[in-house]
Amino acid sequence: MTEAPEFKSREEWLASLHRVYAAAGCLITDPEGRVLIVKAGYREHWQFVGGTVDLNENPRQCAERELLEETGLVGAAGDLLAVAWTHPGEELDHPACHFLFDLGTIPADSPIALPAGELDAHRWAGVDEALELLGPARALRLTAGLAARADGRTRIVTAPNSGF
């Protein structure tokens, strides 16, 4: 049994703790069940509308802010569908916790205003196509989010090492 390290101050103890990145995303579908996803030029895979939680905001507020910033749409985040934990890896040096909220169903012809320089494209993808385009970590979140939408039970999943 190893002995616990001794710390001289609370600040020293806090500095020794692991950090966790926090992010929130939006599950948005159209009436046909297609999923709204967006593409950033700096990432290999497509992603949910969403982003990292800012200082002094909670994950729900983050999802609503990111919805506005990344699409120009205004909406209230509904149920928390999934919480995904990602271990540190090559992309991120700390674990990440991603919250996926239900942002409901909107018509596919709703005007989407992407932020220049941040996102290159958006699309409404069928579930199978979205699972492929999102990559492993986000596909796991989509599967969990759709299951939670169907039965009302939030899912907690552990994603492969692929960051946000």
From TrEMBL:
Keyword field contains Lipoprotein: no
UniProt-recorded Gene Ontology molecular function terms: hydrolase activity
Residue ranges that the Swiss-Prot or TrEMBL entry lists as coiled coil: none
Keyword Chaperone: no
PROSITE patterns to which the protein is assigned, alphabetical: NUDIX, NUDIX_BOX
Organism lineage string: Bacteria, Bacillati, Actinomycetota, Actinomycetes, Kitasatosporales
Domain Nudix hydrolase: 19-148
Superkingdom assignment: Bacteria
Keyword annotations from UniProtKB, A to Z: Hydrolase, Magnesium
InterPro entries assigned: NUDIX_hydrolase-like_dom_sf, NUDIX_hydrolase_CS, NUDIX_hydrolase_dom
Essential cofactor(s): Mg(2+)
UniProt-recorded name of the protein: NUDIX hydrolase
